[in-house]
User: Fold this.
Amino acid sequence: MGGISKTVNYKGNRIDLGGHRFFSKSDRVMRWWANVLPVRMLEGASHSITYQRSTHSLTDGLTRATDADRNAVMLVRPRKTRIVYGGQFFAYPIELSLDTLRKLGFAKVLKIGITYTAAVLFPIRPEKTLEDFFINRFGRELYATFFKSYTEKVWGTSCKNLSAEWGAQRVKGLSITKAILHAGRKVFGGALSDKGVETSLIEQFLYPALGPGQMWETVAHKVRAKGGEIRMNTSEAARFV
Assistant:
């Protein structure tokens, strides 16, 4: 249930197939999720997500959980994704922080800067493959360091076999320039995210207490409770009148 947005229960351990974060710039989508699994707020805590150019408290317009909901709730969680390179953990997407620069070392950072400048001055045209897309936005050295092997392991094929349009949809415009602007917002107290911030840089999100699969398991339960039928493991095509 839920396709790849699934949580497997193996000997009491809940394992997520992919870290499906629940965040949307659409109020309608956020409200729909919260109607299925209400949002649990810590007493006295103030949580907000900024989108559509304004800051919304997660309790404004969203269903708030009560004690009776137990674990059938959404939690507010900070994003923390890490990638291993050279035996060290780096924040992902890559942050332009002192920690990142220290771990990469001066020579590596210099090479990244030179190849990024070259990519800005002499971009690959026409941009056909995902490799072209990454190199144009991050430079050849940063692409080879982080993006190439990571992407090919996840999707099982060379970046040369994926289209540049695929990259534009997945990365949603993220680039070194926007990463710098995002770092500046953090330093000078700007919003965590707004309509001008790429989805890949959002730092807070909602997450079902028992994993992303809980959302769709709950939806399935509600469909069945209302008399609906869910057909699984079948090739029979459903007909709608």
Strands lie at 7-10, 13-16, 48-51, 54-57, 74-78, 82-85, 88-91, 204-208.
